[in-house]
């Protein structure tokens, strides 16, 4: 099943950007529709008794922070197509912030409904599928399970659509072997990059559990966020006056980036060894490809 889904999504993106986007839209609709229905039907069970008497400690929350943050990471992928957006300096920052805010509210409602309809003794071991069974019966459980499959498939579709353009661009700029920068003569897609990422995604999916891979993905993204935040002062110094004038100015200067940097460092500190191992192996693979590309360019 995993091989079939990965192959199908890779082929959809390989054929063209439009088919890849259409696949992503269909999967998004299939995963969101039952979840929205679950929230609407379960809100009637929400009451003030759900407020916990004791909140988890900071260390307990930190242990699951990388898994929690997995639900929010990926918003930065929208910036990959910012060059095709009108006035991205103004529209893109607010689009990113509003997207994260909407997702946070939706997840809050989803978790609240789950806690409201699932018996207290089963909350720790249950899932959204159980909430679907409580609200809609056996068919509801099947639908929510399918929504989970569509959600993971949609995530992979989004990665193939966006990340393949990154490796394609790096191939064009000789930061990766030129093989990654090849455009399909018929479909006009970054064919080799899509195939490489599809194969890599399949290998990861077959080699580890969802939790391990989700935590490793969150760790890798957090490390990227740390580099980006730390680079902000240098980027601002090097930007010309026009770019600085058009850019979004956060209140408090560097206060918000500083807080974000501390939060990222705090979450990274709770990363398990296997997540570091996967991230390190991925980084090493990238460095090897970068070295091959630079050596070939120097030889030419």
Could you outline the blueprint of secondary structure elements for this entry?
Elements: H1 2-15, H2 17-42, H3 58-69, H4 88-117, H5 128-136, H6 138-172, H7 191-207, H8 210-238, H9 241-246, H10 255-268, H11 273-299
Provide the descriptors you would attach to this structure in a database record.
300 residues; 11 helices; mainly alpha
Write up this protein.
The protein is mostly helical and 300 residues long. It contains eleven helices and no strands.
Provide the gyration radius in Å. 21 Å
Give the % helix. over 70%
Q: Strand count, sense and closure of the main sheet?
A: none
Strand proportion: under 5%
Question: Unreliable stretches, pLDDT < 50, 5 or more residues?
Answer: none
Head-to-tail CA distance between termini: 44 Å
What would the principal axes of the Cα set say about the shape?
globular
SSE pattern: HHHHHHHHHHH
Please report the total strand number as a whole number: 0
Structural class: mainly alpha
Helical stretch count?
Answer: 11
Average pLDDT for all residues: 81
Brief synopsis:
The protein is an all-alpha fold and 300 residues long.
